[in-house]
Amino acid sequence: PKFVYAFAEANKDMKDLLGGKGANLGEMTRLGLPVPPGFTITTEACLAYLADRDFPAGLSDEVSEQLAALEKSMGKTLGDAADPLLVSVRSGAKFSMPGMMETVLNVGLNDESVHGLVSQSGDERFAFDSYRRLIQMFGKTVLGIDGEHFEDAIDEAKRVKGVTNDLDLDAEDLKQLVEVFKKVVLEHAGRPFPQPPREQMDLAVRAVFDSWNTPRAVIYRRQERIPSDLGTAVNIVAMVFGNLGMDSGTGVAFTRDPASGAQGIYGDYLQNAQGEDVVAGIRNTVPLRDLEQIDKRVYDELLRIMQTLEEHYRDLCDIEFTVERGKLWMLQTRVGKRTAAAAFRIATQLVDQGLIDMNEALNRVTGAQLAQLMFPRFDEKASGRRKIAQGMNASPGAAVGKVVFDSYTAVKWSRSGEKVILVRRETNPDDLNGMIAASGILTSRGGKTSHAAVVARGMGKTCVCGAEELDVNTKERVFRAPHGVTVHEGDVISIDGATGEVFLGEVPVVDSPVVRYFEGELDPEEAGDLVKAVHRVIGHADGVRRMAVRTNADTPEDALRARRFGAQGIGLCRTEHMFLGERRSLVEQLILADTDEERERQLGELLPLQRQDFVELLEAMDGLPVTIRLLDPPLHEFLPDITELSVRVAVAESRGEARENDLRLLQAVHKLHEQNPMLGLRGVRLGVVIPGLFQMQARAILEAAALRIRAGAVPRVEIMVPLVANVQEFETVKQDIIQVAREVREAESTHLEFLIGTMIELPRAALTADQIAEAAEFFSFGTNDLTQTTWGFSRDDVEAAFFSAYLERGIFGISPFESIDRDGVGELVRIAAEKGRAQRSGLKLGVCGEHGGDPDSVHFFNEVGLDYVSCSPFRVPVARLEAGRATL
Ligand code: ADP
Ligand code: MG
Ligand code: MG
What we know:
Elements: E1 4-6, H1 15-30, E2 38-41, H2 43-52, H3 59-74, E3 77-78, E4 84-85, E5 87-93, E6 103-107, H4 113-121, H5 124-142, H6 147-161, H7 171-189, H8 197-211, H9 215-224, E7 232-238, E8 249-256, E9 263-271, H10 276-280, E10 286-287, H11 291-294, H12 296-313, E11 317-324, E12 327-335, H13 340-352, H14 358-363, H15 367-374, E13 377-378, E14 386-390, E15 392-395, E16 398-404, H16 407-415, E17 420-424, H17 432-437, E18 440-443, H18 451-459, E19 462-465, E20 471-473, E21 478-481, E22 485-488, E23 492-496, E24 501-504, E25 509-510, H19 513-518, H20 529-544, E26 548-552, H21 556-564, E27 570-573, H22 584-592, H23 596-620, E28 625-629, H24 642-654, H25 660-672, H26 684-689, H27 693-710, E29 716-721, H28 727-748, E30 754-760, H29 763-767, H30 769-775, E31 778-781, H31 783-791, H32 795-808, H33 822-839, E32 844-847, H34 855-863, E33 868-871, H35 876-886
Parallel strand pairs: 3-4, 16-17, 17-18, 18-19, 26-27, 26-33, 27-28, 28-29, 29-30, 30-31, 31-32, 32-33
Antiparallel strand pairs: 1-2, 2-7, 5-6, 5-7, 8-9, 8-11, 9-10, 11-12, 13-25, 14-24, 15-19, 16-23, 20-21, 21-22, 23-24
One magnesium ion binds at residues 722, 761, 782, 784-785.
């Protein structure tokens, strides 16, 4: 294969082979922008090198060829004693990994060529400053010497001279520093700083290749879900010098504000400096605007180029540039990262500028960004916000509460009604109860795959992790933040899971304007441009999507909110909550009943209560389909806790006051106690085993529908049987329901239409979907249970126990409960959809697990041809957006 490409041979679509930096340097070269000449060594060469620990055959020759061409175009030879060509050796992978990998500048300088640089530039100080920078960078990145040794030497030189600024070191000082640096290299690397220019270059290339596998790069990739087998490209670029005096300099810029999306001039500039000085923060930069005063010609050219780039990439770009004695050079560009709000604003701005169409705008935003915009947020205008630390944004939300340092206190305080923030160095499975009790979680260690982050995201709980500035002392029950801030147990803090910020005290929380818009409280025409942008983009998504979006809702309030958020029906109404609260005792009696009569009496009391629940729900969703699931959880969930009850009975017995009912209850609890309730007596099995239970529910549903019809409404009922594994189970329950329907139709003398279907949440159901579809009129994939039963682990038990270890070690890229496991669970969905449809062509297919609101999963469900996804009310807009994006 060809291992080396000149910039002129490259373009922006070659990122896989040439990395982002190389591909875009090529693109800018082809656009005729002022890019210093150079060439790129491919990622394939990197992978070959990493496999063999050596350059692949042919690479060196290709490099020599390209180097010769570069030398010819510059009219200079690499490291020439009289007039040296110098180059930078720069890493650049497909995905940007800021600060993770290495770059070496000024390659080609040595004891001789530095004098050539002196005579060519006429600036001795500049030449020796460049040389000492090379030895320093080369020593650190290629030879692995601790940077402190060099920094100490600079400090020492400044101390001897009695100055504080690097710029106050003159040519003589720098010459001496070069000698000191060479000694540092000899001492710490055990070899002299290499003089031959080509050897410098080859060693730097190897170092860049190797930097792909440094621990920090590995960790970064894992966090950002960047595959580890891509490798990095290497760019060899002719040096241009921003450190040749005050008419030179270096800077970074964005074509528009990456925080807000606003158009304008955003960037920083530093006079008389080389690239790394800007990021290193050695000296203060000036705002890019000031460049207009410093050098108007360069400034105007830069603005023209930025406009060219925006129009060419049709997107926000960020750039790195250098000015050498009044001449502008472009050193890097890429489509820039941006906040969620900026993403929506920029997408619609670009449509208005005629650069992209609405499909493209929809493509440029994500459901995750929309979800971010919907979280309640800390009031930015609140006075007295006092930020004390910055961590990682592990799980979004704005949480306020009293600081606690252990699980026990978290649970105790939250039981008494306090809001608490659990603060730990890092969390482990023992902290789970505390995490559940807390409003938010803050850790000082660990990244986005740490235990705290994974579990918090799973629970939808606000979490800031890895706030390393914090010193957490759980024994003393305090944590310390920079600037002498000490926070004790019980003090109030506020944490922002979307930004990773930590504030002292209570910061007021406000609803996001995007939610107020979805709620109908903000008119999009009169709202700010963010709401306008969201309105336009989601409207377009609605226009192009194929799948409907329904909601999971058990109450009229949730149903109405979801409807305002755009839900087109209910995909899952759980009925178990209708058996709780004051109805619990009725259920207890039902379970205890040992005669048919007694059972029927209890069911008869539950019936009108259930019916009223359904009347209200059908009213809230009038005209739209409502899928109601019959009772699913094991019965013991409705009975008292076994230990508590045992103790109560034992105490009563010892006093000779045991009540008959309690004794019977305890018996029942023992009888129903299951080793593994998830795989026990639940779902359709209850319907088969407990006479009259499902019939009562069906009757309540159908009588409610009849009442609605009589009121002139349009109820669209779908009765759903959970946890079916085989068609006979379903058929048995279905016959019972049809019998009930006959009775209700007769009694009410109405024409009552409804569907009977099932959940597909067991592998056996998926594999025999053709048989089940003979009897079922719709399938709803219960992907939570299907994930549990396919993997053979129970979510409640395993998430906190080992998921973070699995994520950390790369066994999972993401929790299969968060995003559908396409290869396993997804394959079952695909099989069931195909088999079901082959049996019954009009079979309605939906999904009601939590995956229904997960962007990646929504794309998958679109791919396998489901008719709708159903998700919690707050996820409905996210699902609408992603269902639209999935069709592009
Ligand atoms: P990173 O990926 O960390 O941004 P780069 O390869 O972009 O690393 O290099 C960092 C900085 O070094 C650049 O922003 C630029 O200022 C400077 N630099 C790199 N190559 C050259 C060059 N050929 N001439 C002048 N400066 C350069
Ligand atoms: Mg860069
Ligand atoms: Mg289920």
